[in-house]
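During the second year of the project, the team shifted from modelling isolated chains to modelling whole assemblies. The rationale, set out in the original proposal, was that interfaces cannot be judged from single-chain predictions alone. As a representative example for this report, we include one of the complexes processed in the last quarter. Its constituent sequences, exactly as entered into the pipeline, are reproduced here:
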Amino acid sequence: MPTTNDQPPAVRIGYGFDSHEFRPGIPLKIGGVTLPYDQGLGGHSDGDVLLHALTDALLGAIAAPDIGSLFPPSHQKWKGADSVVFLREALKRVREAGYHVSNVDASLILVAPKIGPYTSAVRTRVAELLGVHSDCVGLKAKTPEGLNLDSAAIAHVVVLLKKSSSEKRKMKKKRRSA
Ligand code: MG
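Output from the structure prediction step:
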């Protein structure tokens, strides 16, 4: 769409979705935390459904290629990979684009285990990974009522990015010299 304003937006929103299937005998990683449970989430990497959705939300906010394009599941390199690696790459791209994370809101949909007792630990870890206060990480867990999705875990994540102040300074300087 043509626009008369070529300045980068002050805020950008991103959305990510992911789902993984439960498999017995593997660790359950959610938001970078290993939860005690007899099943984990299958996948080429460590199956961390929340970090995958968060990574895609960050990449989407800056219109970067998605997680599957950057880290193809067909590539041996990413077999069993710690999903923190994917998140860090997305954050690096966000910083390079001149933005920082303002806040994140996530919904996890799964039958079990109950996430309530671990919500605080997951929010703290995600906040630490993003470099924000844990008050800036929302996390709700829901059960998939009526969806017949008992063997899957699903994550939806939205993220708000704000233009970094150094970037704002750069833009002002550019305007002044124009
Ligand atoms: Mg995934």
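The mean pLDDT is 92. The longest strand covers residues 11-24.
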